[in-house]
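REQUEST
  id: r-88c1
  op: predict_structure
  target: diguanylate cyclase
  payload:
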Amino acid sequence: MNDPLMTLGDVYRRTVRDVAIGLVLTVPLVWLAYAYLFGPEGNVSSLYATGCVALLGTLASIGIGGAMSLRSNLLQQKLIATQAELLRLSRVDQLTGLLNRRGFNEVAAKALAEAYDRHLPAIGLMMDIDRFKGINDQYGHDFGDAVLVEIGDVLKSFAKEHSLVIGRHGGEEFAALLLGVSPSDAVLLAEQLRQACGQREVARNGALTKVTVSIGLAVSKGSEGLSKVLGLADEALYRAKRAGRDQVSVRYSDTIGVSALGFT
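RESPONSE
  id: r-88c1
  status: 200
  body:
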């Protein structure tokens, strides 16, 4: 949508203009129709002529009003579509095409609440591109953006294949919510995701490299909010990074502690 949203002043000006147009068009049309039907002399009874003029005026008003109403509805439809597009863009990361942090949190929070209502297991996932700052320093920020795009493509394909909610949570960090899968299956899915990211080559301006990712999982106990689940997953993620990166770590609960599951 290229047109800006209408301001309140624009609405008032268009309304006044449409009313003026209606008045300007209605009066000439009525008298033209009267002259055509009865001739310039108007040799008919005054009562009959008055009734005809009133009928013609009504029909003209209905026609013009309908046209203006249609125009107004079309403008309103365009306005709503513009607002919807702006709303969508505010929830999508423009670089990767994934949900941004705001969009992910809204969608994931709703999905998590529905999972709790249906007594489905829910597992939060946080993923970070390993040594991303070093990639930017060595190859430049354009290459770093290319890395984010490639990893974003992997995540989009993975989300579509496994019906996951995935978003870019900020910088080189990504978040996901897995519903209806057991902790052991979630670990296997996370490992598949880790391998898929590691196999993707990134090429730009003659430079070619592969990247690795670290992943943290947190198993919800069925009552935590989204921020709590992702916070626990983030703790597991940084445990995986401290343990050497390029691996999956899972946190089952506050009391059981963290269990690092490395795959090489």
